[in-house]
Structures are given as structure tokens and as C-alpha cells.
Design goal:
Number of strands: 8
Largest sheet: 8 strands, mixed
Radius of gyration: 17 Å
Strand order of the largest sheet: 1-2-4-3-5-6-7-8
Structural class: alpha/beta
Shape: globular
């Protein structure tokens, strides 16, 4: 999980096992730079801009990218603990090229404008942990409502189609709570190496999400599963009882494997995760 500074240990382990290369860890990258993601087949032309979203607690700096013409389903992206940065702009743009209107947010806007991690994903966890600790259930729910409302005000967002939301690392449980905050609008939720999805508290993100009508994609890192082996079973049981579609899988990759600028980026597994995300959205946001 992102509250444990284990990226270097994981990097060494996965490199030794031949699951990823040193190039994939970003060893050759400059601070804040991201590897180029594979191109989208039949990509649509997009328009991108930096935007400001008003929330009950201030103004959030965000990145909005959408198809250059027509309307598209909206998607709200919650970054990992390293925040809004080039890697997530690249991921958002790739999703827009696949036909979605994407808002990538700075969850730490109350404290600092993006970039909030000085060296991107190479920033020591201790430097950014206080930012994550400043968020709670209330801030997550109020932000979710504000961001979804903003998306619904955009002419490029299709109001007759559900909205998707996806989160990475700490963004996983926030994506769950986004569905709970705006259950009538969110139709799809994806969590990639999310931490704290299922707790023993009555306000656990998974219990809140189970009260919605969304479809779920939950992709768990191998090392997170080793630390919390029962979490996947709790998630499967909870969503099954709620009769909600949920694809839940443990990936042979380390926590943080999806963003292309992390030390444990695993391109083959990240591409598999990406394909499953597009499959989810094609069904739930149709």
C-alpha cells in the first residue's frame, strides 16, 4: 500500500524475478517524466485543458481532456499518492482518445497546486504521506459530488450515459466512495492497486460501494494480496451478496504497477489492466 515505503524493495524483487525490466522502473527517466504509453488504435482527436473546479473547500486544479467533437461518457480519475502529474495526464489523454471525457483531479488542492510530488513517483513516500492523511471520508464525498457536478455541466459530457470513476493506490477507496456519493450518476468503478478498500469499520469504502448499482473492476497487486490475503474474499463476498457485477483479480505485479512513471511499472500487466478497464466502460457506460 502507498502508506508503506516499499517501492525500492519491490523493484528489486520484481527485477530479480524477471517480471519487469529496469527500464520499466523508470530508472532512465527524469523527475516527473513518464514513459510513453502505447498508442490507441483508431484514436479520436482530443481537446485538453487545465481547469479549475469549485468545491465546498475551495478551488481544485484539474486536467480535462475530451474528444474534440460530439459528446462522450464522463470519467473521473483519482491519482495515487503522488498526485496529478505528467503520467496521469498521459493516462487521461489516452482514455479520452478511446472516447471518454476525462477529468483528472488534484486531490490535494486544499494544500498545494499540482505537481504535489516534487519528483513525481520518485518522491519519497514520507514527503507526500501527510497530503494523503489530510483527506478523509467527508472530503472524499464532498469532492466527488463537486467533480461529478462539474462534469455534468460540460457540453462534451453525455448526460444520458452513466459516469465512470477510477482510482489508483489511495484513489481506489475514493473511487468507491464516489459511487456512494453520487449513486444515480456513477455506473462503473475501477480500483487499481487500491489500499484500504475493505476495513472493519461500518463506513468502509466497500460497504458504501455495495449500496450502489455500479459495476466494479478491482485489480489487486500481488504484494498487497500477500499482506492482506482475505481482502479479495471479503470484496467478492460483499459484491456477490449485493448482486453487483465485480471483476476481482490479483495481478502478478507490485503495488503501483499501472502508472508509467513508478519504480514498479509493469507494462504487460498494466496493458492487461487497461484492456479490462475499457471492457468495463464499454459495458457500464454504453
Amino acid at each position: 500500500m502507498c502508506d508503506q515505503d516499499q517501492f525500492e524493495k519491490d523493484r528489486q524483487e520484481y527485477e530479480a524475478r524477471g517480471l519487469v525490466t529496469r527500464r520499466q522502473f523508470g530508472a532512465l527517466l527524469g523527475a516527473g517524466m513518464a514513459m510513453l504509453l502505447p498508442e490507441v488504435v483508431n484514436a479520436v482527436a482530443v481537446t485538453e485543458s487545465d481547469v479549475t473546479v469549485t468545491t465546498p473547500d475551495g478551488t481544485a486544479d484539474c486536467y480535462f481532456v475530451r474528444p474534440a467533437s460530439g459528446t462522450a461518457p464522463g470519467v473521473l480519475v483519482w491519482p495515487d499518492i503522488f498526485g496529478l502529474r505528467p503520467a496521469f495526464r498521459q493516462m487521461g489523454k489516452r482514455l479520452a482518445e478511446s472516447g471518454y471525457a476525462v477529468l483528472v483531479v488534484n486531490p490535494f488542492y486544499r494544500v498545494k497546486k499540482a505537481p504535489t510530488a516534487e519528483a513525481g513517483a520518485k518522491t519519497p513516500i514520507a514527503d507526500v504521506r501527510p497530503l494523503a492523511q489530510g483527506l478523509n471520508e467527508t472530503t472524499q464525498m464532498t469532492d466527488a459530488k463537486a467533480f461529478i457536478a462539474w462534469l455534468d455541466q460540460q457540453p462534451s459530457v453525455a448526460r444520458n450515459r452513466k459516469i465512470g470513476t477510477q482510482g489508483y493506490c489511495m484513489g481506489g477507496p475514493i473511487a468507491f466512495r464516489t459511487a456512494a456519493a453520487v449513486p444515480d450518476r456513477v455506473g462503473a468503478v475501477a480500483s487499481f492497486h487500491g489500499g484500504g478498500l475493505a476495513t472493519d469499520m461500518p463506513n468502509s469504502p466497500h460497504l458504501q460501494a455495495a449500496k450502489t448499482k455500479a459495476q466494479f473492476l478491482i485489480e489487486i497487486a500481488e504484494n498487497d494480496d500477500k499482506r492482506s490475503p482475505e481482502e479479495k474474499n471479503v470484496l467478492k463476498d460483499t459484491f456477490a451478496k449485493a448482486k453487483l457485477p465485480a471483476e476481482i483479480e490479483v495481478y502478478p505485479a507490485a503495488h503501483g504497477w499501472c502508472p508509467p512513471d513508478t519504480q514498479v511499472y509493469n507494462e504487460p500487466q498494466a496493458e492487461k489492466a487497461w484492456s479490462r478497464l475499457l471492457a468495463l466502460y464499454s459495458k457500464a457506460l454504453a
